[in-house]
Amino acid sequence: xxxxxxxxxxxxxxxxxxxxxxDEVKAELKASGMMDDKGKLKLKGVSPKMLKKMKQEYVDCPxxxxxxxxxxxxxxxxxxxxVMGKVLCKGSPLKK
Length: 96
Description:
The structure is a single chain. 23% of the residues lie in helices and 26% in strands. By secondary structure, it is of the alpha+beta class. It has a five-stranded antiparallel β-sheet. Strand 4 and strand 5 form a beta hairpin. The chain is globular, with a radius of gyration of 13 Å.
């Protein structure tokens, strides 16, 4: 199997509390059908237990230049894959 093309390998870190999603990210998730009107996440193929864990994780995003919730990273267009505690990121500039 060929390795996915990626620019960055970003380590996934864990925090004590759940990471807050910005209003922009919430609006994006709702528009793409990954969040219902009540604000509950509905990610396909992700169990509730894993979703709870994902909410407490964050990455130091090389594209946004700062700490970002893993859920925001997971739904980003640059997200390639998550392998053994690292995220493979394409590193392309994000469109506004």
